[in-house]
Amino acid sequence: MADAKPVTVPEGATGVLVLASGDVLWGRGFGAEGEAVGEVCFHTAMTGYQEIMTDPSFAGQIINFTFPHIGNVGANPEDLEAEDPHALGMIVRQDVTEPSNFRSVERLDAWMRKHDRVGLSGIDTRALTRKIRLEGAPNGVIAHHADGRFDIPLLLDMARKWPGLEGMDLAITVSVETHYGWEGGVWRLGFGYGPEGAEDGRPHVVAIDYGAKRNIFRNLVKAGAKVTVLPATATYEQVMSFNPDGIFLSNGPGDPAATGEYAVPVIRRLLDTGKPLFGICLGHQLLGIAVGASTSKMHQGHRGANHPVKRLSDGLVEITSMNHGFAVESATLPANARETHVSLFDGSNCGFELTDRPAFSVQYHPEASPGPQDSFYLFERFVGMMA
Ligand SMILES: NC(=O)CC[C@H](N)C(=O)O
């Protein structure tokens, strides 16, 4: 590891990324001033930056966007996966420009400032992505100071002391405190997300929130369910007291194997009820652990909006939205778990179903997007099991 040398701040630099390796990448800060320490990962989506920043699955992470024009459609109050951002900061190629979109109510940099999130522009995001691909996702500090004053040795020390996502339990830190009924389904121009979803007569899904993104609940509603959301620490008795027709395990941040006592033992008991059960992302990983499989940290992870996933039953390739740095290891799936989906990038597990119970899960976000290859059918399959 390179040691920090006395540094001169390049002319005009108001932001910096300091990696635990000793690499120092100068740029221009935007959004909030200050610093944040976490894992630096790259995301290949061309749009959806507000959704990415607010997805609770990104807690503990600093996002390097491979798409150069981030901020060009501004910020709006609808494209949020949670009320506040959970990603720690963003790294982009180009400076944020004036927004050009009829839904925009403010600039992205103003939104970042308001929500206390640090942004860094002017970075060679391709070089950084290449580094992450070769070396794995590093720990680092993103910092922004308008006066250009940075204590690089201190930032390096912060980056080196950060323990890393492996072994870190974050789901519990981003979950809700108490249960609530979810409302909000299909988006309509001029109306936003409709209030549907609470009507009686719909199959009742109890969703355990390990750091859920809102779009998953919207999709459950779109598929016909009524959704009640429970905190990550909900006990078996609490889940059952809502008399669910089906149980949903949400996405969420951190290491699935670090969730300890509150998640997996409850999931095991819920499986024994024989009620339909569906897990996504962290929920998929937790279901994997509950049936005896192991999870491991991936070299660079999968983060993007067009990751090809192969459905093993018929070979169809789904274009999926993904965000994960841990994966269920296929080889450790037990005999009663059939692998259903694999990543076309690296062959890693992306879905399985149990052969002796109505339970299945996937590693990606099944979106209700137009086109023949989306994966929304998974929500319909789940809700259909309760009919
Ligand atoms: N999207 C998610 O739920 C992420 C799951 C888990 N935190 C991971 O990084 O693999």
TrEMBL record:
To which pathway does this protein belong? Amino-acid biosynthesis; L-arginine biosynthesis; carbamoyl phosphate from bicarbonate: step 1/1; Pyrimidine metabolism; UMP biosynthesis via de novo pathway; (S)-dihydroorotate from bicarbonate: step 1/3
Recorded GO molecular functions are: carbamoyl-phosphate synthase (glutamine-hydrolyzing) activity
Concerning CDD domains, the annotation shows: GATase1_CPSase
**Which SUPFAM superfamilies would you find in this protein's record?**
Carbamoyl phosphate synthetase, small subunit N-terminal domain, Class I glutamine amidotransferase-like
The EC number of this protein is 6.3.5.5
The entry marks the following residues as binding L-glutamine, namely 57, 252, 254, 282, 285, 323, 325-326
Q: Which SMART domains match?
A: CPSase_sm_chain
Which residues are responsible for catalysis?
A: 281, 365, 367
The residues covered by the Carbamoyl-phosphate synthase small subunit N-terminal domain are: 13-143
Answer whether the UniProt record assigns the keyword Nucleotide-binding to this protein. yes
Carries keyword ATP-binding? Answer: yes
* This protein's UniProt keywords: Amino-acid biosynthesis, Arginine biosynthesis, ATP-binding, Glutamine amidotransferase, Ligase, Nucleotide-binding, Pyrimidine biosynthesis
Q: Where is this region: CPSase?
A: 1-203
- Catalysed reactions listed for this entry: L-glutamine + H2O = L-glutamate + NH4(+); hydrogencarbonate + L-glutamine + 2 ATP + H2O = carbamoyl phosphate + L-glutamate + 2 ADP + phosphate + 2 H(+)
Q: How does it assemble?
A: Composed of two chains; the small (or glutamine) chain promotes the hydrolysis of glutamine to ammonia, which is used by the large (or ammonia) chain to synthesize carbamoyl phosphate. Tetramer of heterodimers (alpha,beta)4.
Please explain the role this protein plays, according to its UniProt record.
Answer: Small subunit of the glutamine-dependent carbamoyl phosphate synthetase (CPSase). CPSase catalyzes the formation of carbamoyl phosphate from the ammonia moiety of glutamine, carbonate, and phosphate donated by ATP, constituting the first step of 2 biosynthetic pathways, one leading to arginine and/or urea and the other to pyrimidine nucleotides. The small subunit (glutamine amidotransferase) binds and cleaves glutamine to supply the large subunit with the substrate ammonia.
Q: Which family does it belong to?
A: Belongs to the CarA family.
Instruction: Name the chain's protein.
Output: Carbamoyl phosphate synthase small chain
State the species of origin.
Sphingomonas canadensis
What lineage does UniProt assign to this protein's organism? Answer: Bacteria, Pseudomonadati, Pseudomonadota, Alphaproteobacteria, Sphingomonadales
